[in-house]
From TrEMBL, chains A, B:
This is Pantothenate synthetase. Homodimer. The active site is at H40. InterPro entries: Cyt_trans-like (IPR004821), Pantoate_ligase (IPR003721), Pantoate_ligase_C (IPR042176), Rossmann-like_a/b/a_fold (IPR014729). The gene is panC. It holds the Pfam family Pantoate_ligase.
Amino acid sequence: MNLNVVRTRGELRQRVDAWRRAGASTIAMVPTMGALHAGHVALVESARRACDRVVVTLFVNPTQFAPNEDFAAYPRTEDADRAKLEALGVDVLFAPSTEEMYPPGFATTISVAGPSEGLESAFRPHFFAGVATVVAKLLVAGMPDQAYFGEKDYQQLLVVRCMAADLGLPTEIIGRPTVREADGLALSSRNAYLSPDERARAPLLHRSMSEAAQRIAAGGPPTDALAEAVAAIRSAGFDPDYLEVRNAASLAPVDDWRTEPLRMLAAARLGRTRLIDNIPVANPA
Amino acid sequence: MNLNVVRTRGELRQRVDAWRRAGASTIAMVPTMGALHAGHVALVESARRACDRVVVTLFVNPTQFAPNEDFAAYPRTEDADRAKLEALGVDVLFAPSTEEMYPPGFATTISVAGPSEGLESAFRPHFFAGVATVVAKLLVAGMPDQAYFGEKDYQQLLVVRCMAADLGLPTEIIGRPTVREADGLALSSRNAYLSPDERARAPLLHRSMSEAAQRIAAGGPPTDALAEAVAAIRSAGFDPDYLEVRNAASLAPVDDWRTEPLRMLAAARLGRTRLIDNIPVANPA
């Protein structure tokens, strides 16, 4: 077990080429922004089981943060992250500098319409272009067979999948279920921002969403169920950005509640922390 | 000598992978929209000399045409193109359908700031995003070592080079000199639109540019030289979109005429045909 840390795309490509020449039939990539938690660990374990070689990337990507967002404050814990990845049997940690990813004169942006429309985009208009561009660069650098993303960032997962398919990148984009605390709170590196009091209230987001999903699955009017969930989190001090049910495959608004795959997605601020979550919704009979 | 025509990106990738496995050390791609003329032939000959294998692509890319432009009228001469490419010893012609390149749900756009700003973009605002996106898809599909573009589309050459570098594609973007008729007119598939009378006047664009370049190199005021070139082509019935000198590397406006590399670029309509051209400009002493 020997974790190699690689800082340039050229070195990463050399490693991957050497693995291919040596007969590695499947290579996985797990893109992260570090501050690794059990959700990341589950992604790495899935990748480790499925593939001969695993590359984890660690890059806090400045272009997906707006100026008023938490780029500077985002937790950076590379030493702890390296120890976790070494214990998980990861082969390479690719941790480039900002200059390596965005050298002077960098001028290219990849934008994805379709699944990026609405939801997060209404509140973070440059977010998905930042994500799509940096993930494309990571995939081009490593050319993995599979890349693993958490369903916690469900819209991001669909945007990345669309980008990879549209550009014809030879990488299968794999989504894995959200990992939660015992009380239902979705794991997120940003949970570290929560005060003890906020942490105690935070699980209400998931609980309210689950209750609304049950009411919709039982045939209740979706508008009423969603409005009640919004009222519940608002009265607990959340400031919701959105709480909606969309087509789980396209993220388009739902036309037919009984036949389309359904996904409930929400974002809400609690103090200075912005929480997002999403869950499947069973079709009403 | 045996030209293989391939219609899908999957088939193209299989061919290229087989060449790599068989030891081809260098693969070239020459992206075209067909209607091949001596300018394309020169690109293919350069590629043929430099690389073990040559792929020519033929795709009239709808996303780089605005609704009021000539997508429907653009010349399509695949049989003649195939015969030329076979004679030139090209290995594969990749000629996909529109549906192969843009299947339902396609939603991704690659845009490049920097060299795309101004000049053509002021008149064809969606052109370079269309070009950058389709060329990225072609390069990802074929992963060539080199891709050849004509300097006739000088701004396009710089945009494609920037895109490929920014995304980290492993392809060197090579520009080759514009091929001209004996009277100086730059070869273009669109020259076929010119009436006999327009064809007789068309070389004045290049002649006026060359005269202006000589005056600037001799130390004349650039503004005057360019204004006279504009007046000359206008009096011959051209309707100029732009005629400017820019930094040849960045396409930024020129600060220091004596030290920066200089390129004069122009676009002008003559009847229903839009002609573009560009030439180097020597620095004044």
